[in-house]
Design brief:
Sodium/glucose cotransporter; mainly alpha; 79% helix; 457 residues; globular
């Protein structure tokens, strides 16, 4: 029954996506819906990328081993989104750009745009790898198929979904996805309580660190998560597209507030579920902390939760895939090939097909969801640093300095991450410090040369 209901859900949402095709007449509507989406829809869309399969299941996975403090991975968005809506989004909305590379192009120039686009594609690819890992883990457990087969199913559904209706389909169908996502998490938590995993029972039987503010995660990592979440919002491609999809700055701010508020219950419930799983099923792999509860439900509740997991996968992966497609189109395909407007829409759908396939082989090799997700956010944080410095610091407007800062950061942060984060220093700190050092150093060198040139002989 569960498989049948999930199939029906996928067919219905796919049908809605196909229905949305009739509103798409050109590539601009495919990418931004012509700036006519309601702020409520955009608010749910923006938070969905950040509380998708990697965040909800990744938070439960982290809580399984490190405690309720894992909730900070999501809850910090309640601060991050309003900050974005009040201080950054208005400037972006006034530019009428729908890519982060386009925003930086206005400040620095073409070379910085290309570097930014490459970094964002890289970061979003890593993010989607984490999403595919989480999605494949859930599908594998529910449908009793191998992990690679489950990953292929995830990719296939995502490709069909994204190519059908662009951002309008992603945004409106995402409202349904979000409702099932929230309902599923609430049901899982309720089932855990019915099995005896109440807060009182768990505090009596489990180590104290599971219920502290920092758990076994540690304060430095929690601070790094907070910085990464702030940076990811300020520079995530789908967020920029969402800002371009509403009519006014006032609507952008309303949407940002909605996004922040929706993050709190999701983060708290996901972390609580992870601790419940550790209490009830201490010997399972941590990646199964949320899906394991499905085996202990009646068919109807199991169907709701399974649909919620599928909805989480579709909503999040689709948004990221569309964001990558937008970058590829605007920064590579259109400048290089200059296709006609009516052809651009067709090419966008073809690009979205390959974007949906690309994360699949990597997802088979990187099973640690939460760390993969925050590595992606660290990459985006570096873009935020450069963007914020460009918007608010007059001296940080050198195209050469910005390009150098981004290149040094992407290389340095990647080496740091894949070296196992030496000295226990989180990659996020590297992504924050390097751009500031390079831009500041470039400014000092340039000023010194200017002063030397002006000194009389």
């Amino acid at each position: 029954m569960i498989v049948t209901l999930v199939a029906i859900y996928i067919l219905i949402t796919t049908g809605l996506s196909i229905w949305a095709r009739k509103f798409i007449k050109n590539n601009q509507q495919f990418m931004t819906a012509g700036g006519q989406l309601p702020y409520t829809v955009v608010g749910v869309l923006m938070i969905s990328e950040f509380i998708g399969s990697s965040s909800s299941m990744g938070t439960a996975q982290a809580a399984f081993t490190s405690g309720l403090a894992a909730a900070w991975a999501v809850v910090t968005y309640v601060v991050a989104f309003p900050l974005f809506g009040w201080f950054i989004a208005p400037k972006i909305h006034q530019m009428r750009e729908y890519t982060i590379s386009g925003v930086l192009d206005r400040q620095y120039g073409n070379s910085t745009r290309l570097v930014t686009s490459g970094i964002m594609m890289y970061a979003l690819l890593v993010s989607n790898i984490a999403n595919y890992v989480a999605g494949a883990a859930a599908v594998s457990l529910v449908l009793k198929v191998s992990f690679p087969v489950a990953g292929a199913i995830t990719a296939a559904v995502t490709i069909i979904y994204v190519a059908a209706g662009g951002i309008r389909a992603v945004a409106y169908v995402n409202m349904i996805h979000f409702a099932f996502k929230f309902l599923a998490i609430a049901v899982v938590c309720g089932v855990g309580v019915s099995l005896g995993a109440t807060y009182g029972n768990m505090t009596e039987a489990m180590p104290e660190f599971y219920f502290t503010a920092v758990g076994h995660i540690g304060l430095p990592t929690l601070i790094a998560w907070t910085i990464a979440n702030l940076g990811a919002i300020f520079s995530t491609q789908m967020t920029i597209q969402a800002v371009a999809s509403v009519d006014s700055i006032r609507d952008v701010r309303k949407a940002s507030l909605i996004s922040g508020l929706l993050s709190v219950p999701i983060g708290l419930l996901a972390a609580f579920i992870g601790v419940q799983a550790k209490f009830l099923f201490p010997d399972i792999p941590s990646v199964g902390a949320m899906p394991v509860f499905i085996q202990h439900m009646n068919p109807w509740l199991g169907a709701i939760v399974t649909i919620g997991i599928v909805a989480t996968i579709l909503g999040n992966v689709a948004a990221v895939s569309l964001a990558i497609t937008a970058l590829v189109m605007k920064d590579l395909v259109v400048p290089l090939t200059k296709p006609r407007e009516e052809v651009q829409l067709r090419i966008s759908r073809i690009v979205s097909f390959f974007v949906g396939l690309l994360p699949l082989p990597f997802a088979m090799m990187l099973p640690i969801i939460i760390k993969t997700m925050f590595f992606s956010k660290a990459m985006r944080t570096s873009l935020s640093m450069v963007a914020i410095m460009a918007l608010y610091l007059p001296f940080a407007k050198s195209e050469r300095g910005a390009s150098a800062a981004l290149i040094v950061t992407i290389v340095g942060a990647s080496v740091w991450y894949f070296s196992g984060e030496p000295l226990g220093i989180d990659t996020t700190y590297i992504a924050v410090v390097l751009p500031a050092l390079v831009l500041g150093g470039e400014h000092l060198i340039t000023r010194g040369r200017s002063a030397g040139a002006e000194r009389p002989v």
